[in-house]
Structure formats: C-alpha cells, structure tokens
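Researcher: Go.
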Amino acid sequence: MARVITMPSGSHPSVNDVKVEEGSYFQTDEINLIMVEKSFAEYHKLKSGDTVSLTVGDQEMDFEVAGIVTSPEYIWPAKSRQELLVSPETFGVVFIPRKL
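Model: Structure:
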C-alpha cells in the first residue's frame, strides 16, 4: 500500500519539496515516472531505473523509478493519524508528476 503524492513537473515546489538522494527529479515532458521515499526504496531494494507497478482501482500501471527521495513531510511515513507505526514492508510514499 502506498500514499501517492503529486509533484509539479520541471520545477520544485516552494513548500514541501523533496530532496533527491539518488536519480533525478521529474522533467517537464516525462510521464510514467515515480519518485520513491527512501525508507520504502531501501527496504524493497529499489533504485533509479527500476520498474514499479501500482494498482489503482482495478487497473495496474507500470512506472519507472526516476529518483529516491526524502521529504520533510514524510520523515516518518504513516498511513493515518490512527496508524502511525507502519513498516516499509507494507506501506510507502511515492511521488508522481502532476500535469499542469
């Protein structure tokens, strides 16, 4: 399970930006890319260039990992206020490009 966060393509946001630890940030015209939060990526041994499948509803979509990132908003990824202690085995945060 993952929380999917959209980020602008081609420019970093002024609030809640991510720090790219490996790989790169989204470029303007790229699609089907994903940036993965570092603890989830480390647990699952993901790196830039790998393919990740996400299931949204009943549709499965493949994404290429553009980068491994850290985020000030997700220092400790949690599913919700009620479920604070989760394992990177079962929950992660991923970022996808937002089309402007």
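Model: The radius of gyration is 13 Å.
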